[in-house]
Predict the structure.
Amino acid sequence: MVWYFVHTYEDVLNKLIDDCRRMMPNETVGYLVGDIYQWRRKKWLEIIGFIPAPVQETDQYHAIVDKSRMGEVVKLLDEYYPDKIIVGWYHSHPGHGLFLSDLDIRSHQAVFGKSPHVALVVDPTTQPPSYAFFLLKENGYTRASYIVWRRRQYE
Amino acid sequence: MSERKPRITRVRGRKAVERPPPSIGEYEVADSWPPLSLAPQAIEAQPIHKSNRDRSRIIYIMITIIIVSLIWSGTIIAITHPEFFKSQKTTVTATLTSTETSTVTTINTKIFTTTETKTISMRPSTSINVANALARLLKEKYRSIEDWKIDSIKYMLSGFLYDGELREFELKSLNETLHQHLNLTLDNDLIALIMALQSAYSSGNLNEEIDDICNLAIHALDIGEEDCKSVLSQSGGSSRS
């Protein structure tokens, strides 16, 4: 039986993809907000929002986070998502496909270590936009199962 | 600045809250991977019925009792009737399994149907060397191509090969990018070239294998043998350019 690890919502994902589109042709990067839950001894992760990261430098292949402004991210987290945590990060690969580069893996390891945080990669150039969630494993990464829910009140 | 410890660091070691995931009763499914049709049962967060829980517990207890009884019976027989065991000869078959550090899965990309698994020993830096070497070979073939297109393929390949595996979706992505930027198809010749580069960089035998690799490069990329050797002799470093 497949257990969907990542659960998120269509409106959240659409806004995030719009943000990636706005930054084209450059890459964009940010944090995924939500929480990690457990059900029947299995963990699952819910993404309810995102916070674009303050970027120091960006081009088609890189987006360097300005670490000196991380306080702003924490402040936004406290203000808009008071009981939530950062559950991962996202970045765009405009026209490069869905994968984690060597640098992406090292960045993920440096920030999140071995915790169950996910990395979302979005390619906003495709039609429709393509995206994939990834989890780090022992010697690399693996694709994480996900499900995107459509809220009934948004119909 | 807030004096509180950032929440980012608080998540480690934090106990996850018990909560069922959203279900179809509450929401509609907009997208999923794997596709929902392959795993319809996964998304239904049904409540645990007490009767089911009790039944599971009874079965668990019964199995435990049977296993413990069998162990005790065996022990008692072994003590009281040791002759049962003396006459028996035991043959032990040891299976030696060669351990490889990683696996490379190649797909017949022309039709994307047959799957063949090959095992190649990999070190993390190998992926960067392979990507660099292939990028230089591609640059040799497409001399007027913009650097960013070659770089895009290089970064993609080094990411894909990081764990020594080329999965189906990675091959498809690589094929699409090669096609988009270079109008090149990721066929079996090109996959064979990538694998040969991996093998050579993993074992550190690039010089010994350079003839074979260049033979593959001639078929895959239609470049000259001398050009190939010249390119590969410059691709020994592990730093990303």
In short: Strands of chain B lie at 17-18, 27-33, 103-107, 115-119. Residues 103-233 of chain B form one domain.
